[in-house]
Structure to design on (432 residues):
């Protein structure tokens, strides 16, 4: 099981989610994708996308003012 | 009395920021992800507001002004506006509330949108704008042309939207949430994720309240963003105040205040400087938004959300063509998006590449 990091700070919505979709397509089942982002709307869009695809969210937290990290596992 | 504009704008900015309500996102999701959840929430705003505004009219509180449709200007303007909001990353109202969150790219887009709306409405291109908008057809409201009571269409709108909401709610899944830091009211206001449909009901209530509050100051319409944005620029460069429109100027300034308060209270305010590509897109997007909204006679709020609720041809055609413009913009600027070196892993750590403009 590998852990990949996607740094999207500075990318405005919807690009963090667009890049997350591109990134997860190349991952193996069970791999984790860590997405760091600072666009507010993605706090709704990324967990919603994970839920709709039945990808478990193993970590989701703030890393500072307007700064977040979420870990999505490919399933 | 015009201070109600500031208060209502602040409420709107607060609700939109906390609710992550974004009309651009609602339209864009349909094109790039085949998702209609946010579009359905947007229709909730139209449907409830429509019931509210026709109830106010039936009660004799107000009479909605109607005018003949500036068909070519509305179609072309809305299409340009749709492309513009994809480039700017938010519609006019979205750009206002993201400005309050500290996004410098949104400040740039907002400045150009207001500038070009002013150039088109009050400035050098006013003649071009008026000539295009003078091409009108004999059509005003959907119910007038169909020869039915507006309530028939309101009922259809409510039933269709209600069915769509039920469909989405019945498929709702458990979504991951950020760990809670606060309790009580502070948790509800500044932390808990708001359901899109709850947010939509709150936006609808604000949109309905806008009518009597605005009519009371002599401005006979509902929520509006483009004309006051243009008037702010015109006031700044000429010093002339249009008092009849001051309510809406305070409304848009209120959005900044409300979204700033919401973002600050939630720890979501940060000055965020865009990269070269985002900056160029904000400039192009803001310009297209200003020109497009002036031709169309409104933005996603004034046309797609307010004129639609009034069941006018202008509103529904603007909604359709803005939606098509968003599809075009998404095809040109989003689905083709690639950023080399975006993904890294401990095994393959690549150096980040400069962003492509």
């Amino acid at each position: 099981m590998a852990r990949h990091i996607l740094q999207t700070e500075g990318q405005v919505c919807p690009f963090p989610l667009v890049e997350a979709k591109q990134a997860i397509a190349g991952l193996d089942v069970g791999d984790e994708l860590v997405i760091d982002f600072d666009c507010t709307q993605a706090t709704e869009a990324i967990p919603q996308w994970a839920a709709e695809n039945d990808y478990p969210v193993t970590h989701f937290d703030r890393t500072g003012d307007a700064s977040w990290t979420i870990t999505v596992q490919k399933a | 009395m015009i201070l109600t504009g500031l208060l209502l704008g602040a409420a709107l900015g607060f609700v939109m920021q906390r609710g992550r309500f974004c009309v651009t996102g609602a339209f864009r999701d349909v094109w790039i992800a085949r998702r209609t959840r946010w579009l359905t929430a947007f229709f909730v705003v139209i449907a409830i507001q429509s019931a509210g505004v026709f109830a106010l009219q039936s009660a004799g509180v107000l009479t909605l002004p109607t005018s003949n449709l500036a068909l070519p200007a509305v179609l072309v303007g809305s299409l340009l506006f749709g492309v513009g909001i994809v480039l700017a990353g938010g519609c006019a109202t979205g750009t206002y509330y993201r400005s309050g969150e500290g996004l410098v790219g949104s400040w740039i887009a907002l400045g150009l949108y207001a500038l070009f709306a002013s150039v088109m409405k009050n400035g050098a291109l006013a003649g071009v704008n008026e000539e295009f908008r003078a091409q009108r057809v004999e059509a005003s409201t959907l119910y007038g042309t169909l020869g039915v009571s507006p309530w028939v269409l309101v009922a259809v709108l409510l039933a269709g939207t209600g069915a769509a909401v039920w469909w989405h709610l019945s498929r709702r899944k458990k979504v991951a949430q950020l760990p809670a830091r606060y309790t009580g009211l502070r948790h509800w206001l500044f932390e808990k994720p708001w359901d899109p449909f709850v947010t939509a009901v709150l936006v609808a209530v604000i949109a309905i309240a806008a009518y009597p509050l605005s009519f009371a100051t002599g401005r006979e319409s509902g929520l509006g963003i483009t004309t006051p944005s243009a008037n702010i620029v015109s006031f700044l460069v000429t010093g002339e105040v249009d008092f009849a429109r001051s309510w809406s100027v305070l409304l848009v300034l209120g959005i900044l205040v409300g979204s700033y308060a919401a973002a600050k209270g939630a720890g979501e305010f940060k000055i965020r400087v865009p990269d070269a590509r985002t900056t160029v897109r904000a400039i192009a997007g803001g310009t297209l938004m200003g020109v497009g909204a002036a031709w169309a006679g409104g933005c996603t709020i004034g046309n797609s959300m307010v004129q639609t609720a009034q069941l006018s041809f202008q509103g529904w055609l603007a909604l359709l063509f803005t939606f098509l413009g968003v599809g075009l913009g998404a095809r040109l600027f989003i689905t083709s998006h690639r950023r080399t070196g975006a993904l890294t892993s401990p095994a393959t750590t690549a150096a980040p590449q400069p962003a492509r403009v």
Observations:
- The interface with chain B takes residues 2-8, 10-15, 18-19, 22-23, 26, 38, 40-41, 43-45, 47-52, 57, 60-62, 64-68, 70 of chain A (CB under 8 Å).
